[in-house]
Amino acid sequence: MTDSPAVQAPLDPKEQPILHRVLHLRDELSLLKQDKSTYIKSHDVISLYDQVIEQVHSLNVVREEHGKPLEQNRVDNVLEDCFQLISLFFLTIGRNNEAPAVYSMTSTIRRLLDHLKEAAFFSAKDLDSASHTLDKMQDTLQRGKETHSPHLLTLLDNRLNTCRNILAELQASLADLSPALAPVHERLVSILRSISAANTRQKFPVAEVEGFQEQLKEIQGTMVDGKFLAKDSTAPAGQAIVAELLDRCFLWSGIVLTRKGKIDERFKTTYDKLYEIRNQLERLSLTQAWSLRETDLYNYQRQLDRVDESRINGNFEDSIGYKADLHAQRTLLYLLRRSYAYIYSLIISSEPVSEALLPVFNQLQTLRRCLVEVKRSGGVSSPRELYPYSMKLNSIDNMRVDGKFLVGSDIPEGQGSVNALLAECFDIAYELRVQAEETDSE
């Protein structure tokens, strides 16, 4: 396994034993991640987590003694890998609402915010989503004050503050945008992203991109004397923001139509790598409930980080140091950002249920959707129509022992979520049965 990013080895000989220990812990975490023969058990994760925290404490003591608490070297780098893995393990075992689970999301959201700042185009909805996620993570840290290491909580708090500072900058850049222009601005952001998506299709969709150009011309046609007007014919604030974005859309659509999805050969290897990662994450997002083990995201994160860190002053460069042209640069950045966005989406939609209980949880979610749809369409004409649902619910209910779902002798995390979903399914089925019986009696 490679570190990301690469940094110098520790110079202090007292840090060498810590480095050896955290390297060993990272190897143990990696082996646990790769073992697909059984589900991840909470006690295995907690044991490794405690050992990593112990090493963090030892490292802090050494650095305080030598007056260099802000030192950064390979020990920190390997610890970053350990915390990323532990964070994803906490999601895998269903402990989503505990502080260690926050770590991986702080890394992903930081990357996304940095990229939004670099790209200089985003909608208020993008920022609202990030703000909501940061608030939820802050609440998780508050709940964990009594149960988790202060070293970890301080680290996570600092990471959240860094994200909030970047978010505040982005919000300030849209502060002058009038609500009257927000719909036009959001539409332009959507068009620009849609053009970038079309640019990475296997078969370039000329007609689709030309259609986006027509939409841009329609938007431009609504301007009066070079300004966008509100319903009362006044010129709302934020004209420069929207006009600049419109120009960027026209420029990018023209470049994309000229290149027709052909990337500069010098950057084809990087493009192919990012293209495949984006497609794999897209497939995972479609089948998440049935196929995702959250720890699988680690490898994707690290591959993306490596590509992101390989840029020189923000630019992709070829083997002899020449910068990528505008088309290659924006295309690669789009794939990079889209992949990070998929990881973000997969993490926030992770259910607080151990992977051991996911098969039951997923079946109950499917049953609930079916029952809700039956209810929405007017119910059933006879209680007999509910028999298949009742049989399935009873078979799942019979799996419980003293009200708990067991795997062997273990009690996996997420019992509350699964039991609540089971109870909800029973309630909906009961309502439908009562409704059908009342219809029969009439």
Topology summary:
Elements: H1 16-34, H2 42-65, H3 74-92, H4 102-119, H5 124-143, H6 150-173, H7 182-199, H8 206-221, H9 239-259, H10 268-286, H11 288-291, H12 297-309, H13 326-348, H14 358-376, H15 387-397, E1 400-401, E2 404-405, H16 415-441
Antiparallel strand pairs: 1-2
Largest sheet: 2 strands, antiparallel
Average of per-residue pLDDT values: 92
Output the radius of gyration. 26 Å
Which percent band covers the strand fraction?
Answer: under 5%
User: SSE order in H/E notation?
Assistant: HHHHHHHHHHHHHHHEEH
Side-by-side strand order of the widest sheet: 1-2
DSSP helical segment count: 16
Helix- and strand-based class?
mainly alpha
Model regions low in confidence, pLDDT < 50 over at least 5 residues: 1-6
Distance between the termini: 70 Å
Subunit organisation of the chains: single chain
Coarse shape: globular
Total strand segments: 2
Helix content: 55-70%
Description of the molecule:
The protein has helices at 16-34, 42-65, 74-92, 102-119, 124-143, 150-173, 182-199, 206-221, 239-259, 268-286, 288-291, 297-309, 326-348, 358-376, 387-397, 415-441; strands at 400-401, 404-405. The chain has 16 helices and 2 strands. Helix 1 packs antiparallel against helix 2 (42-65) and helix 15 (387-397) packs antiparallel against helix 16 (415-441). It has 442 residues and is mainly alpha-helical. A hairpin with a 2-residue loop joins strand 1 (400-401) and strand 2. Strands 1-2 form a two-stranded antiparallel sheet. It is globular.
Produce a short descriptive summary:
The protein is an all-alpha fold. The protein is built from 16 helices and two strands.
